[in-house]
Specification:
The chain has an eight-stranded mixed sheet with strand order 3-2-1-4-5-6-7-8, with helices on both faces. The chain starts with a helix and ends with a helix. By secondary structure, the protein is of the alpha/beta class. It is about 50% helix and about 10% strand. Strand 1, helix 3 and strand 2 form a beta-alpha-beta unit.
Length: about 325
């Protein structure tokens, strides 16, 4: 009887295909759920502590800000778009029941905007416990910042380099404190193009993105050395492959073929923003990392970096160039 019913279904496409599609979706959701990675479960309160999260209006940054707010921290959402930031802030306040969440304009492509943000923050707060350098762009068309730097290097590295420098006095005064920089596994494919660092002669958006993520790790490595003895730590991390707006410039995702074939596949193997934020939270909050600095993390544990990310001479070259371009005396 059961066998006959099975073959009867095979002969009825109106039942077979919807069943097959439903089963496929079910399997896809099971696979996706199994690949979300670790969740930071320590319920430690952050009441009385002050945080800055760049790019906090969407994606990983928004989920990071939400979690910190739920822990009763004072959270500054540093964003380029104040309208989007305000929308996210209202949502976070409602879900966290914490009114100490603030939107402040920060355009990492503009040195004057970065300086204005820091000036206002210091006028409003007397301490900073954790700076989370989260914002970034990925594989965008050839664009330049207000100061004329290539957009990915300008946003992902130089903007955060200047922001961190301007906030170091507050971080040192509030120690033990932390600097957390969101990098990517893409750094393992990155190479520092010392001959054309600003992509003035040629531009490959993929290679420049990978270089910018390598810059994040090298910056963290050199920064940690310079902060030895201050009780301020600096660590970098890979959040995982996360389904966010960051991928919006990838051509294969936006093509017809990509939307039909590639994107569903990427979706199945990518994290959602909540899970993408977990390693950031681990690096920012976990008590076991209070004295850990200059490291790289993934899935809430220490991970290995590429050989080129261990190059101290290159880290120093990058630091000196960044100081020059950011006009730091």
């Amino acid at each position: 009887m059961a066998r006959g019913s099975f073959f009867a279904i095979l002969k009825r496409p109106s039942i077979l295909w919807p069943s097959a599609i439903a089963t496929s979706f079910g399997i896809a959701f099971i696979i996706k759920d199994s690949l979300q990675g670790e969740v930071y479960k320590n319920p430690i309160s952050q009441e009385g502590k002050v945080f800055i999260v760049t790019g906090a209006n969407t994606g990983i940054g928004k989920e990071t800000a939400r979690d910190l707010a739920k822990r009763k921290g004072t959270v500054y959402m540093a964003c380029r778009s104040l309208s989007k930031c305000e929308e996210a802030r209202k949502e976070i306040i409602l879900s966290s029941r914490n009114k100490n969440v603030y939107c402040r304009e920060l355009d990492l492509t503009s040195f004057s905007s970065i300086k204005n943000f820091v000036k206002r923050f210091k006028a409003e707060q007397s301490r900073l416990d954790v700076l989370i350098n989260n914002a970034g762009v990925m594989r965008c068309p050839k664009l330049v910042t207000n100061e004329g730097f290539e957009m990915q290097i300008g946003t992902n590295h130089l903007g955060h380099f200047l922001l961190t420098h301007l906030l170091l006095d507050y971080l040192k005064a509030s120690s033990p404190s932390r600097i957390v920089t969101v990098s990517s596994i893409a750094h393992t494919r990155g190479e520092i193009n010392t001959g054309d660092f600003n992509s003035e002669n040629s531009y490959d958006p993929k290679k420049v993105y990978e270089m910018s993520k390598l810059c994040n790790v090298l910056f963290t490595r050199e920064l940690a050395k310079r902060l030895e003895g201050t009780n301020v730590t600096a660590n970098a991390l890979h959040p995982g492959i996360v389904d966010t707006e960051l991928m919006r410039h990838m051509g294969i995702v936006n093509s017809f073929f990509g939307k039909i074939i590639v994107w569903p596949f990427l979706w199945m193997f990518s994290k959602n923003p909540y899970h993408g934020a977990q390693t950031t939270l681990y690096c920012a909050l976990d008590p076991s990392l209070e004295k850990v600095s200059g490291e790289y993390f993934a899935d809430c544990k220490k991970a290995e970096v590429a050989d080129q990310a261990k190059d101290d001479k290159m880290a120093l070259w990058l630091w000196k160039l960044s100081e020059k371009w950011c006009r730091i005396a």
